[in-house]
Amino acid sequence: MAAVGSGGSPAAAGPGVVSAGMLEPGTTTAGNVKHLVLFLHEAVLVQYVDTLKLAVPSLIYTLQNNLQYVAISNLPAATFQVTYQLKILTTALFSVLMLNRSLSRLQWASLLLLFTGVAIVQAQQAGGGSPRPLDQNPGAGLAAVVASCLSSGFAGVYFEKILKGSSGSVWLRNLQLGLFGTALGLVGLWWAEGTAVAHRGFFFGYTPAVWGVVLNQAFGGLLVAVVVKYADNILKGFATSLSIVLSTVASIRLFGFHVDPLFALGAGLVIGAVYLYSLPRGAAKAIASASASTSGPCTHQQPPGQPPPPQLSSHRGDVSTEPFLPKLLTKVKGS
């Protein structure tokens, strides 16, 4: 891959331009670390316009991470996990508005079902269905999780638009995001607790539980990459549903969370909506056609004595249309 200019087009070859073989970190050795540094200098500093484009999603991602801590501090873990699935709704809406994508009727219906389920869970939370600590503020928690979902949807779609609008690699874009995120996080740390850090040290208060949260977040990020590469939307939907169930069970065991019928109904609607939204287009069309065929009598009748017409295969050689089978992934060059 040639070096990318500020406008997204390949730059002319010249001094300091790194070849395609030196783009990815896995291709570097001890002998060409210098070339990697030259590439990073060219891609991050010289072509600063491309780098500045990543400041917007990086700022939003940093804000989103902090909002999640505010939300989980003011909501039960199970309620937070269910409500946080609103990010599917916000991502879909921003995809339609910014990327001109079209959603099927089943997906629109699943989004409406998702919103209804979250509304029921929040109604149960507002009604005081389960005991909560006195220092929790459900209103502040709901506002934080909604703002986090909005920022997650916008940043994800914006980042996808940048990736598709330029020839920079995903590795480079993640590096640029990390640089801005680290800088913004350090600025926020200095602004909020700069004096305490100066007196007590940067790692003061890092208990084993805190280190566990840090490692869990890092491991979760790596798992997301594995899911995207080796799994499909069906399995991702099952994983999301399983996370809701596990969060509910853990909340019952650790915090005495009470599951009433209203919460169970809302959580069930959210789990069903996540699964329906994750269905591939082929499976969605099959469900729609099946429901249409059972909703009324068939208008076409086969003449007596004639053989039935041949049935066309629904998956046409693509396993992705089977709703309960993982999608076959073909390795694309450069992926």
Structure write-up:
With 335 residues, the protein is mostly helical. The chain has a domain at 37-126 and 136-193 and 231-288. The protein is built from twelve helices and no strands. The protein has helices spanning 33-46, 48-53, 55-74, 77-83, 86-99, 105-126, 138-164, 170-200, 208-230, 233-255, 261-278, 281-294. The longest helix has 31 residues, at 170-200. It is globular. The two termini are 13 Å apart. Residues 1-28, 297-306 and 309-335 have low confidence and may be disordered. GO terms for molecular function: pyrimidine nucleotide-sugar transmembrane transporter activity. InterPro entries: EmrE-like, Nuc_sug_transpt. Keywords: Membrane, Sugar transport, Transmembrane, Transmembrane helix, Transport.
The helix-and-strand class reads mainly alpha
Q: What spatial form do the alpha-carbon principal axes imply?
A: globular
- Tell me the distance between the termini: 13 Å
Series of H and E elements: HHHHHHHHHHHH
Largest sheet, described in full?
A: none
The helix fraction, in percent, is 55-70%
Helix count? 12
- Which percent range describes the beta-strand content? under 5%
Question: Total strand count, please?
Answer: 0
Radius of gyration: 25 Å
Mean pLDDT: 75
Indicate the low-confidence ranges by residue numbers: 1-28, 297-306, 309-335
Family: Belongs to the nucleotide-sugar transporter family. SLC35A subfamily.
GO cellular component, one term: Golgi membrane
Subcellular location: Golgi apparatus membrane
InterPro entries: EmrE-like, Nuc_sug_transpt
